[in-house]
Design a protein that fits this description.
By secondary structure, the protein is an alpha/beta fold. It is built from 15 helices and 28 strands. InterPro entries: BLH_phosphatase-like (IPR005939), FAD/NAD-bd_sf (IPR036188), FAD/NAD-binding_dom (IPR023753), Prot-tyrosine_phosphatase-like (IPR029021), Rhodanese-like_dom (IPR001763), Sulphide_quinone_reductase (IPR015904).
Length: 555
């Protein structure tokens, strides 16, 4: 927590953690306002977790979620009403603190504070509220102070940083900026191994500052809106940023709220998920401690990132129980909203062999819709062949939940999105179908490929090449073939290495005598555990395109 004191009655920070609430209480804070909607980040605790910690610390808690960059006068009025009635001092938080600071500034302006006073108070707390002051004064930023870049990248996840590095690997003269409010960057493929006790959490995280190329300007903020007609994006503090070409790579939203009761019980009562950094260790704790009972594993409707991850958690957990000779005492269930175990049939026989080995019960067309952690009960909506639906209740001792997933809110509300909310691109060139100077990659696009880090590794050089081709720097348009990879960890020490492209076409990276991806392999495990993390950190994010050189049309 980076708490910034604005005055004696108000402080602000980025995302709070439940454990930090007691620190605020010890410092004299009496009330907390949350301005961040749930589901904005993979490492974000849900609002309910903070609320529960506040109740334990006897602090008042108010939830006033505001979409990034969408701070309205109505939001400011609501904030003002809450702030006025709450016991002081009040602490407000969002992703970076900017929304909370903006709300406070607008609320103070409504009470007569001048723009100069707002600017001074915000600056002392480390926030630039000049755009808010311009809003109060009715001033509009002139062309002379516009910030403009040859290439602007939204998102500094795996896809965004890889695209920036691949651009610079081809042309060091191009001006590039990346927009992202995060402090840290996660190697999310490693969380499955954290949940199995193979990796320590620290092995999957680095500071974002250490990864963004030095030639790239980092705009540490969140994007609120897109204005492709004017080649502009607007930040959450209402500041416009202009571009010649735009690359959109903000990732995916984990929609925890879509499952009734889930936010309230995550991390407690045997409810866990490897899809959140701080919960992967809890998964391993549950697995180690379970000696008898029922363990459930869930998979929501597609699309989700790394479609094999829900069953990876099952296999590695079951393998531990198998090695501890506990399978006779543990009932394992896999509840999949889909109709098949895995979407590419070539890999199903090897996976089914492990399902049978671990005696796991498969339940297809079962979608988790509600959970009661204290009652240790989950409810699934089951659909039969005729489309009839019914609710099915299942008790559990532990449950690993894969949350439903969707495009981020600011993408769904933008002109870049298709009807389902994803960025609308040509699946081969990754260029936007409507706006010629916009490209997109990673989990946010609507191309029918697997949403994996391996897919982003292949997409980044394609996008970099095609952006520079449009600028006249390189020749030839590169094509993406839908490649994705899902290393299915079927036991500790063996992996079924699924590699495929559009239409389920197998696209192996190695000869069969090295790795036969349709069969469990120790070599593939070694690749996953020892080789892929360094390739991620030292190659993919550095613009070194090992096994990822883009293929150009006609080549």
């Amino acid at each position: 927590m980076n708490k910034q004191q604005v005055n004696k009655e108000f402080s602000v920070s980025g995302q709070l953690l439940p454990a930090e609430v007691a620190t605020l209480a010890a410092a004299g804070v009496k009330s907390i306002i949350c301005n961040r909607p749930d589901g904005e980040g993979a490492d974000q605790p849900n609002m309910v977790e903070i609320q529960q910690a506040a109740q334990q610390a006897q602090l008042e808690f108010v939830y006033l979620p505001v979409l990034s960059g969408k701070v309205t006068d109505e939001n400011a009025a609501e904030f003002q009403r809450a702030y006025t009635r709450l016991a002081k001092p009040v602490h407000a938080y969002c992703r970076s603190g900017t929304r909370s600071m903006t709300l406070w500034s607008l609320a103070q302006a409504r009470q007569g504070m001048t723009a100069a006073q707002i600017l001074a108070a915000a600056k002392a707390a480390g926030y630039d509220m000049s755009s808010v002051a311009r809003r109060i004064a009715g001033y509009r930023q002139g062309n002379g102070t516009q910030r403009h870049y040859d290439v602007l990248i939204v998102g500094a996840g795996a896809a965004g940083i890889a695209a920036a590095s691949s651009l610079l690997a081809r042309d060091r003269q191009v001006s590039v900026a990346v927009i992202d409010p995060a402090e840290v960057h996660y190697y999310q493929p490693g969380w499955t191994l954290v949940g199995a006790g193979v990796f320590e959490p620290g092995k999957t995280v680095k500071t974002l500052a250490s990864l963004i190329p030095t030639e790239v300007e980092w705009i540490k903020a969140a994007v609120a809106a897109f204005d492709p007609q004017n080649n502009c994006v607007t930040l959450e503090n209402c500041q416009p940023i202009y571009y010649g070409r735009l690359i959109v790579a903000p990732g995916i939203k984990l929609d925890w709220q879509a499952i009734e009761g889930l936010p309230e019980t995550l991390g407690h009562n045997g409810v866990t998920s490897n899809y959140r950094f701080d919960l992967a260790q809890y998964t391993w704790q549950l697995v180690k401690n379970l000696k008898a009972g029922r363990a459930l594993f869930t998979q929501p409707p597609m699309p989700i990132k790394c479609a094999g991850a829900p069953q990876k958690a099952l296999y590695l957990s079951a393998d531990h129980w198998y090695r501890q000779q506990l399978l006779d005492n543990i009932e394992i269930g896999f509840y999949n909203a889909g109709a098949v175990l895995f979407g590419v049939k070539d890999y199903v026989p090897a996976l089914m062999a492990y399902v049978e080995k671990y005696r796991a019960q498969l339940s297809f067309s079962h979608n988790l819709v509600k959970i009661d952690g204290e009652a240790k009960t989950a409810w699934f909506e089951r659909q039969d062949d005729r489309g009839n639906r019914e609710l099915v209740a299942r008790e559990f001792d532990m449950i690993h939940v894969c949350p439903p997933q969707c495009a981020p809110d600011f993408i769904k509300a933008s002109p870049l999105a298709d009807a389902a909310g994803w960025v609308d691109v040509d699946q081969t060139t990754l260029r936007h179908k409507q706006f010629d100077n916009i490209w997109s990659l990673g989990d946010v696009i609507n191309a029918p490929n697997a949403k994996t880090a391996a897919a982003a590794r292949m997409q980044a050089p394609v996008v970099a090449n095609n952006v520079l081709e449009d600028m006249g720097v390189v020749k030839g348009v590169a094509h993406y073939n839908g490649y994705g990879s899902c290393p299915l960890t079927v036991e500790r020490g063996k992996i079924v290495l699924a590699e495929f492209g559009y239409g389920g076409k197998l696209l192996p990276s190695f000869p069969r005598w090295v790795i036969d991806g349709t069969k469990p392999s120790r070599t593939a495990w070694w690749l996953k555990e020892a080789i892929l993390p360094p390739i991620y950190w030292r190659a993919m994010l550095k613009g070194r395109e090992w096994l990822a050189k883009p293929v150009k049309a006609g080549a």
